[in-house]
Amino acid sequence: METRFQRFRPTDSSPSGEVGERREECLPWPRPHPCLPPEQRWPARHSLGRAAAMGKAGGDETYFQRSSLFWVTVIILSFGYYTWMIFWPETIPYQSLGPLGPFTQYLLDHHHTLVHSWYWLAWLIHVGESLYAIVLCKSKGITNSWTQLLWFLQTFLFGMASLYYLIDYRPRRQKQT
């Protein structure tokens, strides 16, 4: 059962000719609570493949932008597989993975130390990127501690896929008088 909430909006022209008459409009989402800040009132209107901006209405101190769904998916799958390789290599169905299976088995059999080293190096790089994200937040005027935490966590998990948006961000300059 689909729930639709009613929203009334004054119109300047109506079938009866009265100015300011209220007409009924059906919305596919619930009415927002009037006490919510404007940026939280309506659902984000963006395609899933593109990054969605959050908190822009709050000013530079709360700027946050989610990473692209494509890169988030790629990173989760690749890091997940890499973690599986490192901690549970005996459970990997090598013959069912096509060319990736024998390649993974070769790496684990012949370059075990190198595979482990690269795994921990990748996490160390993500830690460095996330610390750099905090420095960038401060230098770009993003002072809200929750927003800085979001940038830190997102960059820790997704690395450059997140850090790119922070590096690319150009804060609005204050007019000097």
How do you describe this structure in short?
The chain is mainly α and 177 residues long. 46% of the residues lie in helices and 9% in strands.
| Main sheet overview | 2 strands, antiparallel
The total beta strand count reads 4
What is the approximate shape? Answer: elongated
- One letter per element, helices H and strands E, the order comes to EEEEHHHHH
Low-pLDDT residue spans: 2-14, 18-29, 41-57
Helix residue percentage: 40-55%
User: In angstroms, what separates the terminal alpha carbons?
Assistant: 58 Å
Strand content: 5-15%
Briefly note the structural class of the backbone: mainly alpha
Radius of gyration: 24 Å
Query: How do the strands line up in the largest sheet?
Result: 1-2
Number of helices: 5
Report the average pLDDT across residues: 78
For the structure shown, list the relevant keywords.
177 residues, two-stranded antiparallel ribbon, 5 helices, elongated, disordered N terminus
Overall description:
It is built from five helices and four strands; from the N terminus they run ββββααααα. It is mainly alpha-helical. The longest helix is centred in the C-terminal third of the chain and has 28 residues, at 112-139. The chain is elongated.
